[in-house]
Amino acid sequence: xxxxxxxxxxxxxxxxxxxxxxxxxxxxxxxxxxxxxxxxxxxxxxxxxxxxxxxxxxxxxxxxxxxxxxxxxxxxxxxxxxxxxxxxxxxxxxxxxxxxxxxxxxxxxxxxxxxxxxxxxxxxxxxxxxxxxxxxxxxxxxxxxxxxxxxxxxxxxxxxxxxxxxxxxxxxxxxxxxxxxxxxxxxxxxxxxxxxxxxxxxxxxxxxxxxxxxxxxxxxxxxxxxxxxxxxxxxxxxxxxxxxxxxxxxxxxxxxxxxxxxxxxxxxxxxxxxxxxxxxxxxxxxxxxxxxxxxxxxxxxxxxxxxxxxxxxxxxxxxxxxxxxxxxxxxxxxxxxxxxxxxxxxxxxxxxxxxxxxx
Length: 359
Description:
The chain is of the alpha+beta class. The protein contains 12 helices and 10 strands. It has helices at about 1-10, 15-45, 65-75, 100-105, 155, 170-175, 195-210, 220-260, 265-270, 275-315, 320-350, 350-355; strands at about 55-65, 80, 85-90, 95-100, 115-120, 130-135, 140-150, 160-165, 180-185, 215-220. The strands form 2 sheets. The chain has a 6-stranded mixed β-sheet. The longest helix has about 45 residues, at about 220-260. It is elongated, with a radius of gyration of 31 Å.
């Protein structure tokens, strides 16, 4: 009965209900996009080798070769090393050379001669074990598809070319590029990169012998600065979503107060026929909860759809979890209950005779 009365009151004041409803909807949409795209961006950064991360450095020098990669990977504090310039674009195909250790970290199989791993979004018809013919310089060769993967690094997704991963050895053999001037070095998780930089430089110079000078091109501080910017953006979006929900909450409070003013006589009749002040208070609070629940449901649907669309635009796959949906639901319902309680409690405390006088 209480729920039915709250529902009928809401239908009878649809114009006033639209404002708080829109506030809740836009608040939930903002909250969903913030949580899902934030989680998607974090996952892309954590799982992609060439994405921005807080525990990597880049060094520069002359004539770096695969021998230098092996030297670096033998250090216990180094997770992996790779040549960021080991990539060639031919006929819209981007060949990327990775050392074997990188494939293991990416949970991809190690590659032998003339074996490749292709991106399934760019090679939708590729099947594991089949051979594909690709251009290599001025001639074409057949390669076996060893694995199919999906690139999630937003920085890689924005680059031109159909991504084809090959081993570092095969890259050098096919394209004749054996010397590089930059190496990206990732330290093991939990290690302090800043602390290991002087140790690494000293030992690396000693182990590789007289092959020219080595210098630091990028330190973890550069990456940390960008991570701080990302956090600021996420915080700002979170604040905007809460502001929007707050506006919806004040709209709910205004809606209930308006209903109370316009239905004073009806409230007197209901009290006169036996409705307790507690039930009357619950009836008006239920009206606020209904607005929050309807707005949350609509906001979740649009939030998921818009997150997917925005993710395709910025090349970040949103991550939806039960936790983010649960948070959105709880926040909205709490706002509906809290903001609707004050006018509802005041209405329930009014004297029956005073209410009947206003009929």
